[in-house]
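This week, work through this protein record:
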Amino acid sequence: MLRSFSNVEKRLENLGLRKENASRLRVNEKRMPCIGSNKLFPGVEYRNYQLEVLEKIDEGFLNIALVWPRRYGKDLFTWLVALTYGILKRRRLAYVAPDLKRARDIMLEGGYTDANGEYLPLVPNCSEIVVNKTTAKMRLSNGTLIDFLSAEDEDKFRGPTYHGLFGTEFNFGPTGYIDAASPSLVKVGGLTMVNTTLAYQNGSYFRLLEWEKSSEWFVSRGSVETMLKEDGSRYTTEEEVQAYRNKVQNEAKVRSEYYNEIVLDPSTHIFATEVASMHETGRVKELDFSKPSALFPVMDLGINDKTFILLIRLSKNHIEIVHEIVNNNEAWLYYFNECNSFANKQQCYIPQFILPHDANHRSSQLNGKLMTTADQFRAYGAKVQTLKRIGNKDYSVNMTKENFGRVIINSSCTQLLECLASYRKEFRDKVGIYVPVHDNASHGADSFMYAIQAWKAGYLTTNQVSISEWSL
């Protein structure tokens, strides 16, 4: 059995902290050694931009985003704040990385390299911390529990009551986990802190822009040219930046990691330019439901995978995406009911469900009978239209790009926006070409492309006129 923390108040005082308010960190004489000398960590002298963040927490900000350059200490700083937050009071915390491998690496082998190239551990080896490598959990001897989680596992954030949420590199993975954990965090007045360098103009990037406008968030954002020492000199010199430039031979990477600038690369991120244009022209906005209308569910079906549904309505000049339904491994009846529930709530109706071509071929059991997905929806009472298969993915992508200007997306469809901005292709040596990647972003992107295909085919209408599908 681990020895408990003794004389916590005195220990915090010795570390430059005082426990005036259990939900906030306090700064004492511009120094916060956190878990100081001969305790869990050696003393840490904080830089002025880091002290500014601590002061904002002290003022009562509970939502913090750090957008700092390479080697500016964002991971170490976030971890030390998380660990200190857990020592101040017994809490349950979540530490989140873009994927499970990265999350486990932080816990099991996590560390960073200082300016001299020396490896320093993030998770100390001491008697006051127990690490469970199997469950990816860490427990402090005061009872604080820290879960190490992947940003891809949104459902894991909905059950537990977290008092603190700490995320690393949020621009490199999905950010829906923040929404999933938000209700419990708001209820208990918990702290959210996420960090990243900027690399992609994806959903997390546009979320960051909204945070910068919000009075509930403090965003610390800068570059090697703006985040300076008190005497005005740089922490990272131009010579160091140039050395890195010579090493990587990739100017986009240099602009990302040292200047937090995003260089759009449409050759790899398929819809990045179009999504950016939607935001710039105001075509991502809150949509009105004051008038009853027809809604058409368009689906990308997941078998042992993610199912992504978009509910579409037509206005005079635009295709409006009003709602998204996303889940994993649920029965088709669940999605049928979810669509109808949303439509009824908005006093709308569903003329027919639009399913992909494979809905006519994929089969599963319904009431002991093997039925295709399309037939199961019909058995529930739905009118169903299946799309034709498009063999050439580039053709579908190009037709979608051509019609992006007709689309308006409800600002609540955050997962769709993130999927569209993150949808990418990569070079495959075996075939010698770039091909779209099947990953977390591809489900929403496919559903969006199906919506464009359904509109071009004339299926998004209550007057089911026979219109031949676009040339395939």
About this structure: The domain at 8-221 is CATH 3.40.50.300 (Rossmann fold). The longest strand covers residues 319-328. The chain has two domains: 8-221, 284-457. The chain has a mean pLDDT of 81.
